[in-house]
Structures are given as structure tokens and as C-alpha cells.
Design a protein that fits this description.
The protein has 838 residues and is α/β, with parallel strands linked by helices. It has 32 helices and 34 strands. It has an eight-stranded mixed barrel with strand order 25-26-28-29-30-31-32-33. The protein has a five-stranded antiparallel beta sheet with strand order 14-13-17-16-15, sandwiched between helices. A hairpin with a 4-residue loop joins strand 13 and strand 14. The longest helix is centred in the N-terminal third of the chain and has 28 residues, at 247-274. The radius of gyration is 38 Å and the shape is globular.
């Protein structure tokens, strides 16, 4: 930690000021506009007569309507606490701590003219204390605490709480259990525009940014600076909010550490003083006991004396060093001109400071921070040199380790996305200058998510490490292998002989990856990969375009069946851009309410009565016309929009059905499709219960359809969700039955009541005996399990007759009706409508 810097080096010279007659409301507006936490009150002569800060704002009684009209002369802190610009940061920190303040007015040393303001934030942001902050966890901080307030509380109550509890920020509790934050600056905004009905939620920032308690102070400071915040929430391992910390808390922690070190140093010095009777003996004691190595030489650099710390650090005894020169420690790592510049500075300035790599007596290298000072006589002729050095090897190693971790993947040790981006950019610049092409390969493992989800993250990590080793083994000399994220790897090739050579290398890389691997002791998995290739400059002239196009080529390889490679072509990019456009349009469609719900009747096969309908989403795009669900549903799945879209379909279907119940006495069920992502990540039981409560539809009139693959998911979370839905009275159906790999034993355990036979087994059952046999078997199995059977895609009378003969209960398809908009479907709700064909 460095407190030796002056206040002048970090102060803010942009002084925000106003006259004493300014009201607190006007001052608050100025401070909010300038994003400043303090305003200096100046008289007509330009002298600082007071200061008013965010902390002062919350001391006002906001219950009083006239509080905003109070002048600064009545409430400012006066006289002004000042500090001179040449004072050290240590003195500024001590004064802030002593006065319990966050701001100081800075003056010129002689004229006492105001030149700026310094705050705790300025000190924390500019402190050279990364090493201490990196080693100190958030749970080591003392003094920070959590003061809560409800989001619906009046703002004036919040001001009183801040004042009574003496805190800079309050944790704002919302009804859903989430947290926001209300700071003194937020209260300043309220004072700038006072309104009697303002609640805490109207002023608070939401959500509260948090860090786990096991993170370091350095990470907290970086996050505060990066997001321009002054406060963060601290959570435990379970995500429970523990406290709120700010810049002042970090400064207090740094100060405590500094004071602790200072007390220790003073204690050691005092112990030495107790045993000394004269200044010479005291100096000798300090010389002997200091932790830094000290070397004293004559004017010709012959060592005259060394202290014990010198021997401890270097391994050379006092007797071995005296009479020699410091060249005794040379490692050979510094060139001759390094020492020439050192001695040149000593001759001119009488002082030199820097880092030197030296060698211990044992032969081990170490890094020292060295300061050499020339000691002249009364005629200003150098008689001695005093060198003081500290062993900073561990600190340098820690810095190198942090640099490595910042630029390399922690799991595989490969360059990460940050370092790879720099390497790729350098390769582009070099290739432009040399007019030499190079290639980029983008490698993505096939079915990695399945392996990771099935065998666990430990197995997934082991797989990634082994794959990285295989890629390194196959990479040519000079190539760069990197891991961008997850199971994505890149291979940067410095030169390209020919496309044929690239294809050979790509196949060799795939061959090295493809095969059986044993993970976690005895779990065997088969691994393959898809690989895309982009070549500079044909496939891109920038680092970004090359990476995007190599990625597009990789996805084309996946679409071709995986375990292959693909060179980039322009149509891939067009396809990718079309997909991006579709993804953007999906976001817009959801926000602009472009989607529609159409309904396809579900009928009783014997009587022809309408027993329900299936709700089907339709998208009439304003520019591209109707977009088939088969085109946009997979995109919605990939970009995580399927959950809000599915919720909208559920809400609209239940609302419309309830309307038909009320107007036509409709007694059937509406069937709504659920995706696997909705069940796993959409809090589906609570969502369905809320929709039913909001629309008033009875649970017995809602049927939820899930695909066979989702139903067969062995994840216990899916089973719990289905049981929860069944518990509130929802009918559950398995859609597209027969297309997956269902286990009959597992099917018996599912809380479902309906099986829907996939249309692929219905369309040819009148002429394909295999389809007829499958349909007959599914109907028989479903009936034996007590399930209702629904056939999809019934288009002919022959289909209906076969299904009736086999005992199928219900059906839907073009024989009865195609999917219809809500206003057309209403015509089928009257009792006299016959849905069986004549």
C-alpha cells in the first residue's frame, strides 16, 4: 500500500460551489446534474465558508414540507475542514477518519486558496494497494453492516433511518425477495425534486449489484470503478444478503491494515530505542534489525558493511561480502547497458531506484526492489553509497500468476478469449504487412452438453483437459491453440501452404479428437467434434470477421451431421445473418404483441362432439408474412425466448377459453404445448397457478402437452414439475408419442392422462401395415394404462374408421378442421355444429 503520494496527485479540481443563500433543493439539483457528492459554499470574496454533502442531505427532516427551502447557510458544515495539496494521502485518510467525513476541501500550501476537493472514492481508486486488496477477502472487512428498508416506505422515513443508523446506503427489500439499494445520492435527487408521496422504490437503484463474500477487495474495487458505483451488496454462499459496503469501507480497511503495519513497525523501532543510549547505537540497531537488506560501499563500490537481512536474503555472510563489490550478486539477466544507465543516474542525480534480478549464494534467482543513494561529504563529493533492497520475488511471482490467470483458461492452461483476441489481431496486422495468408480453425465438441449433464461437471472438465492436450499435440509449430468458452476451441495457423494442406490438417485434428475416452475412472464416452475454417484475407480482413466466419463454418459442419469440417462460404454468413434477423424479430414480436393463438378442434371420434382444442402459436410477421412455427420455435429455444413466449401463449389461451366458457358454456379442455425449457427453468407450477388465478379458468379445463423426449428426461426436476402440475388439477398429455425412445416402465410412473399418437403414424395407416400396427399397439397400450388416446393428423374417413375400430377416443386433423383464428373457431362452439364429415 502506498500512502506516500500527495493529495495533489488525486484531488478533483472541478470545484462545485454556490453562495450561502442557495437552498438545499437548488444545491441538490446542481449536485445531481454534476454527479458530485459535495458542494463548497463560497462567500462573495470567494472564500470557502462551508461544505454541504450527501451525508448532510439526509440529516434534513424530509417530513417537513419546507425542508427543501432551507438555505445552505443553515445546514452546511462550517468551518470548512481543509487540507493542503502537498499533504500525503496518509494524512488525508487520517483526517477523514478522525472527522468521520467523506470529503475534504484542498487548499494551496501558502495562499490557502481553494484548489479542489478530495473524497474517500478518490483515495480508494488511486491507491496503489492491489497486492493487499488481492489478498484480503470481503469477509475480513469490519464495520460494514446491513440496514434494511421496505420498498414501499416513504422516502422521508429512509432519510431518518440513514441519519439514525449513520449509514450511507440502505438495502431496499422488495416483496418478491429481491434487493435494491438507496444511497445518500438517491436522497439528494429526492431533495432536488421533493414530492411528498415519493416512496423508497421510486428513488432506489434496482437491482442491487452483489459479490460473494469469498471474493477479494480488489474484485470489489474493480467492480465499483467499472460500473461507476459507490456501493455493493455482499452475499454468503447461499446468496443471502449480508451487508452493503462502499468506497469508504474499503478505505477504512486499507487504513486499518496500514495502521497495523505502522504500529508493528513502531513497536519494533521502540524496542530498539529502549536498548539504545545514543543516536549512533540507535542507528546501528535499526541497521541490524530492519527487514530490508542494506549494503554500504565506498566511493569505488567496495562493500564496507552489510546488515543481517542482507545475509538472510542473499545467503552470503558478512565476512564473505565485505571487500567485494555488489557484482557478487549478478545474475547475468541484465545487459551491460542496464548498469551503465544505473551508474549514470547515480553520478548525475545521486540516486537510483528500480528492480534487479540477482542470484543468491545457492544459485537461485530472486527479484529485489533496490534503492541506491550517494552519501556526499561537506564538499559534495560522494564518499559512500547506501543500497537498500527488499526481496519481492513472491510478489512478482504472484503478479505473474495473476497475469497468467487473466490471460489463460484456468482449467486447460490454454490462452483464453482475451489473449486469443490479441493474438488474432496481431496475426491480422502482420498478415496485412507481409501479404501472407493465415488460417483460423474453430472447433466445437459434439454432444458435450449431454456428457456434461449426464456424467457431471467433473467429467466434463476432465474431457476438456484431454481434448486440449490432443489439440496441442496436433498443432503445428508456431500455431496457437486457445479455449474461448465451454467446449469451444480455436487453432490459429501462422501460414497456409494450400487449401489441401489445411483440409489434411483439419481431418488430422478431428481424428485426434474423435474416439472413445474413459472419464472419472470408468465412464466411457465417445467424443467427436465439428470444425470450421476461415482463411485471411479471402474469408475476412478483420479479426472479428474471421472469428465470426470460422464459427459459421463450424455450425455448417454440425448441420452436415457433425464429426466433419467445413470451409467458410459466403452463403453461411447470409444464413447466419438471417438467423440473427429472425432472433431480433422474435424479441420485437414479443414486445409488440405480434403473435396470435389459433385453435384446432379436438373431437370425439364416435359422436363427433367437440371435446376441446389445441392452442397453436402463429406469427404474422409485418414484413415477411406468416412464419411457420417450425422456423421460429427452434430459434426461440436457442435464444431463451421460449419461456416468455410460452407464458404468453398460456395466458392468452386460458383467457380466450374462459371467455368462451362464459359466453357459450364451453365445457371442454384447451391443450397448450410446453417446452422442456419452460418446465426446467420457467417455474412452471407457479406460472400455471398464477395464470389460472388471473384468468379465472378452472384447472380441469386446461391440458398441458409435453413432448415424449421431455417426458422421458430422467432429471428429477421434470418429474417434480409434472407432479406439481397434476396436484393442482391440470391434465397432462404426452405429445408426438412413438417418435422417441420411451420406456414403458418409466411411462407408468408419469402422472399423465393422455397419449397423443404422432401424425407420422396416422397419415399412411390406411395403406402401410407397419404404421397401422404401431398405431394399434399404442392405442392398446394406452388403454391398458387407463389413458385417453388422441390421434393427430386425421385427414381421411379411412383414418377415422380405423381409429374407431381400434378404440381410439379422440382425434384432431384436417378431416374435422384446420387450425383457425379465435374469431373463426367460435363458430364451432354452437351445439348444432357437426364436426364429423357428412
Amino acid at each position: 500500500m502506498s500512502f506516500s503520494r500527495s493529495v495533489e496527485s488525486v484531488l478533483s479540481r472541478n470545484i462545485l460551489s454556490c453562495p450561502p443563500a442557495t437552498t438545499v433543493s437548488e444545491a441538490a439539483k446542481i449536485m445531481c446534474r454534476e454527479h458530485c457528492g459535495a458542494i463548497v459554499v463560497m462567500d462573495e470574496a470567494g472564500q470557502a465558508v462551508g461544505i454541504w454533502t450527501e451525508s448532510d442531505a439526509v440529516r434534513l427532516d424530509l417530513y417537513q414540507a419546507q425542508a427543501a427551502a432551507t438555505t445552505l447557510a443553515q445546514v452546511m458544515s462550517s468551518p470548512v475542514i481543509t487540507i493542503e495539496a502537498n499533504a500525503s494521502l496518509q494524512e488525508a485518510t487520517a483526517l477523514l477518519h478522525q472527522r468521520k467525513m467523506r470529503h475534504l476541501v484542498v487548499t494551496e500550501p501558502d495562499s490557502h486558496r481553494v484548489v479542489g476537493v478530495i473524497s474517500t472514492t478518490d483515495i480508494v481508486v488511486n491507491q496503489e494497494s492491489e497486492f493487499f486488496l488481492q489478498l484480503t477477502r470481503l469477509d475480513a472487512m469490519a464495520g460494514s453492516r446491513l440496514v434494511r428498508i421496505e420498498a414501499d416506505a416513504p422516502a422521508s422515513v429512509a432519510a431518518n433511518v440513514m441519519q439514525e443508523q449513520r449509514v450511507e446506503a440502505l438495502a431496499v427489500s422488495y416483496p418478491d425477495g429481491s434487493w435494491g439499494i438507496l444511497t445518500q445520492r438517491d436522497m439528494l435527487r429526492h431533495l432536488a425534486d421533493p414530492q411528498s408521496s415519493v416512496r423508497v422504490a421510486d428513488l432506489a437503484s434496482y437491482p442491487l449489484r452483489t459479490l460473494p463474500v469469498q471474493m477479494t477487495l480488489l474484485r470489489a474495487r474493480k467492480m465499483l470503478v467499472e460500473f461507476q458505483l459507490r456501493h455493493l451488496g455482499i452475499t454468503d454462499a447461499a446468496g443471502t444478503l449480508l451487508s452493503i459496503i462502499g468506497m469508504s469501507d474499503i478505505l477504512a480497511t486499507i487504513e486499518r491494515e496500514f495502521l497495523s503495519e505502522l504500529r508493528q513497525a513502531l513497536l519494533e523501532r521502540d524496542e530498539a530505542l529502549l536498548h539504545s543510549r545514543q543516536s549512533l547505537l540507535m542507528a546501528d540497531k535499526v541497521f541490524e534489525s530492519t527487514m530490508e537488506g542494506i549494503v554500504i560501499t565506498d566511493s569505488k563500490a567496495i562493500i564496507q558493511s552489510v546488515n543481517p537481512a542482507f545475509s538472510r536474503i542473499t545467503g552470503y555472510s558478512r565476512e564473505e561480502a565485505i571487500g567485494k563489490t555488489p557484482a557478487l550478486l549478478k545474475s547475468g539477466r541484465q545487459a551491460a547497458d542496464f548498469y551503465e544507465r544505473m551508474w549514470g543516474d547515480l553520478q548525475v542525480n545521486g540516486f537510483w531506484q528500480g528492480e534487479v534480478i540477482n542470484r543468491r549464494k545457492s544459485g537461485l534467482l530472486y527479484t529485489e526492489h533496490l534503492t541506491i543513494t550517494a552519501i556526499p561529504d561537506e564538499h559534495d563529493v560522494t564518499q559512500h553509497y547506501v543500497a537498500v533492497f527488499a526481496d519481492i520475488t513472491q510478489r512478482k511471482q504472484a503478479e505473474e500468476r495473476l497475469h497468467f490467470l487473466a490471460n489463460h483458461d484456468a482449467l486447460t492452461g490454454l490462452p483464453n478469449r482475451t489473449l486469443f483476441s490479441e493474438t488474432l489481431q496481431a496475426a491480422v496486422e502482420l498478415a496485412r504487412a507481409s501479404q501472407q495468408p493465415f488460417a483460423l480453425m474453430f472447433i466445437d465438441l459434439d454432444r458435450f452438453k449431454l456428457i456434461n449433464d449426464t456424467l457431471g461437471h467433473q467429467a466434463g472438465d476432465e474431457l476438456l483437459v484431454k481434448i486440449s492436450q490432443r489439440l496441442l499435440a496436433e498443432a503445428p509449430a508456431g500455431a496457437t491453440v486457445a479455449r474461448l468458452a465451454g467446449d469451444e476451441f480455436t487453432l490459429l495457423l501462422a501460414g497456409v501452404e494450400s487449401l489441401a494442406a489445411l483440409a489434411t490438417l483439419a481431418q488430422r485434428v478431428l481424428d485426434s479428437v474423435t474416439g472413445e475416452l474413459v472419464l472419472c475412472g470408468n465412464s466411457k464416452v465417445f467424443v467427436s467434434a465439428s470444425l470450421g475454417i476461415a482463411v485471411f484475407p479471402e474469408d475476412g480482413r478483420t479479426a472479428e470477421s474471421l472469428l465470426v466466419n470460422a464459427d459459421a463454418a463450424m455450425y455448417q459442419a454440425k448441420n452436415r451431421g457433425k464429426n466433419t469440417f467445413q470451409f467458410y462460404t459466403a452463403d453461411m454468413n447470409a444464413s447466419a445473418m438471417a438467423r440473427l434477423k429472425l432472433e431480433y424479430s422474435l424479441h420485437r414480436a414479443l414486445s409488440r404483441d405480434e403473435f396470435q393463438v389459433w385453435y384446432q378442434p379436438k373431437v370425439d371420434l364416435v359422436s363427433g362432439a367437440l371435446v376441446g382444442m389445441e392452442a397453436l402459436i402463429r406469427w404474422p410477421h409485418p414484413e415477411m408474412g406468416f412464419i411457420p412455427p417450425v422456423d421460429f420455435i427452434p430459434v426461440a429455444e436457442d435464444c431463451a425466448l421460449i419461456v416468455p413466449i410460452g407464458t404468453w401463449v398460456l395466458q392468452e389461451s386460458c383467457r380466450q377459453t374462459k371467455d368462451w366458457v362464459d359466453r357459450y358454456g364451453f365445457a371442454g379442455r384447451v391443450a397448450v404445448n410446453l417446452s422442456g425449457r419452460q418446465i426446467k427453468f420457467g417455474n412452471i407450477v407457479q406460472t400455471v397457478a398464477q395464470v389460472l388465478a388471473q384468468t379465472g379458468l378452472q384447472a380441469a379445463q386446461l391440458e398441458l402437452e409435453i413432448t415424449e423426449s421431455t417426458a422421458m428426461d430422467s432429471d428429477g426436476e421434470v418429474m417434480r414439475a409434472l407432479e406439481g402440475l397434476r396436484a393442482i388439477g391440470i391434465t397432462l398429455a404426452i405429445d408426438d408419442f412413438g417418435t422417441g425412445y420411451s420406456s414403458l416402465a418409466y411411462l407408468k410412473r408419469l402422472p399423465v392422462q393422455v397419449l397423443k399418437i404422432d401424425r407420422s403414424f396416422i397419415k399412411d395407416l390406411h395403406c402401410d401395415k407397419d404404421d397401422a400396427a404401431i398405431a394399434s399397439a399404442v392405442i392398446s397400450m394406452g388403454r391398458s394404462l387407463g389413458l385417453s388416446i388422441v390421434a393427430e393428423g386425421v385427414e381421411t374417413e379411412a383414418h377415422r374408421e380405423f381409429l374407431v375400430a381400434q378404440g381410439c377416443h379422440q382425434a384432431q386433423g384436417y378431416l374435422f378442421s384446420k387450425p383457425l383464428p379465435a374469431h373463426e373457431f367460435e363458430a364451432k362452439l354452437t351445439p348444432q355444429v357437426q364436426l364429423l364429415p357428412a
